Amino acid sequence: MNARDENARLVIAIDGPSGSGKSSVSKEVARRFGLAYLDTGAMYRAVTWWCLDSGVSFEDHEAVVAATETVPLELGTDPDEERILVNGEDVRAAIRGDLVTDNVSKVSTVVPAREVLVRMQRDIIRDSGERIVAEGRDITTVVAPDADVRILLTASEAARLARRGRQLGAAASSNLEAQVVGRDAKDSTVVDFTSAQDGVHLLDSSELSMEQTVQGVIDLVIRATDTTYEGTTEAPDETGADAPEEARQP
């Protein structure tokens, strides 16, 4: 990647619903441009795991907020090395399990808890030298509305369900639709991640492969900034723009 200045600010914000491919695509785009990578969804999942592990009642919103404020979370931003520790424990696999998935909306819909995490996320973006790909449900509108490039990555409901089913394979949960569509419905009560706001580029990955979607994002970055990209390295998986959240289990 060549740019006007290799140390110049380049914040790419990618929003979208479950199964749209935002996590795998964001990570690969960060890798291609040599940027840091922020998975905000992992932060919500880590807090959810912490609440479950600590016996915090999700009905007690004040306790949820307190847990969010004090969670001993260590989150790496290297796209080549996922690092998620809570109280020193590696929770990469645990936060992708059904128990956390079934409860994460009980954290993400608590507005004061979201506000705490938004502040953390903005700090991470700042600490990256503002050279980062950040992805999540409210990245383009709330966390980083001033990002250099803002993208809403979407896909049809059928495509998202099919992808998630392929990703999980034999481990696919019987309540797959509830996990994908149901969580989106719950989270949409506190943040709009289904429609592109002014200045946000829309990219529909329903009929695109992983590589095509990555290239689509790269093209948007090139058009929106002075950044130029040189490289043809293909994404590690050509099964579709679909290896997001759960597929990143070690």
TrEMBL record:
GO terms for molecular function: ATP binding; CMP kinase activity; dCMP kinase activity. It is found in: Cytoplasm. SUPFAM superfamilies: P-loop containing nucleoside triphosphate hydrolases (SSF52540). One of its GO terms (biological process) is pyrimidine nucleotide metabolic process. Coiled coil: none annotated. ATP binds at residues 16-24. The keyword Kinase applies. Keywords: ATP-binding, Cytoplasm, Kinase, Nucleotide-binding, Transferase. Residues 228-250 are annotated as: Disordered. The keyword Nucleotidyltransferase does not apply. Residues 235-244 have a biased composition (Acidic residues). Residues 12-221 form the Cytidylate kinase domain. Its EC number is 2.7.4.25. Belongs to the cytidylate kinase family. Type 1 subfamily. This is Cytidylate kinase.
